[in-house]
UniProtKB/TrEMBL annotation:
Residues 236-250 have a biased composition (Polar residues). Residues 14-115 form the ASCH domain. Residues 216-250 are annotated as: Disordered. SUPFAM superfamilies: PUA domain-like. This is ASCH domain-containing protein. PANTHER family: EXPRESSED PROTEIN, THYROID RECEPTOR INTERACTING PROTEIN RELATED. It comes from the Eukaryota. Gene3D superfamilies: Hypothetical protein.
Length: 250
């Protein structure tokens, strides 16, 4: 996978809490939510923070993804057997970043993906790859560069992952790999109503449980921005209210 990053990012990495980190690398999570737009395009390495996830948080997030995939008729999801911490897990390709209100109205992507749009900015992720043997390492806040020696070892140990429903996010301008950016879909959505799906009780309960898990996790551990707990933190009602967002930086 060729990097298309600009700026000073050569081998960019993002530290996330578990179970959200593994769900992204396994291709189950396709949208990473933040209060700030993605500064990169191309390969983004994913590192799991040191906080051990509680069984309740894992169950809540697995239930959440079972229900949003069920919206698209996907009933069989293979979740990770383990959620390791303080490890480099693998990588995804960030192909774009849009605002929440754009994603939830974007009819060209599956309904379940639109349900993942729950923060101010949605980083759109494709082509997950996991490390056969996750590397122990220390993480940092926001996006940072991997050490060269870690990158050199990690890039040789990647294995492609096929998620339950891989998504190809269409570029507004196929000739411009940077065209999928905040505001790029707005002209196509003028007059569109916020996306709404009739939520069955199981889906509503799963969304509420995921929101609770992320909120409780971020309250217990202030060492990282709260959005590292995942992008279900603040907008389970995103399809009804576009301005429902929580700042993730302290």
């Amino acid at each position: 996978m060729e990097s298309r990053n600009g700026g000073n990012y050569k081998n960019p990495c993002l530290t996330m809490h578990q179970p959200w980190a593994s769900l992204l690398v396994y291709g189950i999570k396709r949208v990473e939510g933040r209060s700030w737009p993605s500064p990169i395009r191309g390969r983004l390495w994913i590192h799991a923070a040191s906080k051990v996830p509680e069984p309740e948080a894992i169950k809540a997030m697995e239930d959440f993804y079972r229900e949003i995939y069920a919206v698209n008729g996907i009933m069989d999801i293979k979740f990770p057997e383990h959620y390791p911490v303080s490890r480099l897990l693998g990588c995804v390709e960030v192909v774009g970043c849009v605002k929440c209100e754009e994603l939830v109205c974007w009819e060209e992507v599956p309904e379940g993906v639109r349900l993942e749009g729950q923060t101010d900015f949605c980083w759109l992720c494709e082509n997950p790859e996991k490390l056969i043997i996750p590397f122990e390492m220390r993480g940092f806040q926001r996006v940072y560069n991997l050490e060269r020696k870690i990158y050199d070892a990690a890039v040789r140990g990647l294995s492609r992952v096929k998620g339950p429903l891989p998504v190809k996010f269409p570029l507004p301008d196929p000739r411009d790999p940077f065209s999928l950016k905040p505001g790029s879909l707005t002209s196509n959505l003028i007059g569109s109503k916020p996306y709404e799906v009739e939520k069955p009780p199981n889906l509503s309960a799963a969304i509420a449980g995921a929101r609770t898990a992320a909120t409780q996790f971020s309250k217990r551990d202030r060492s990282y921005p709260s959005s590292m707990s995942g992008d279900v933190l603040n907008c389970s009602e995103a399809s009804q209210s576009m301005n429902n967002s929580t700042e993730d930086e302290r």
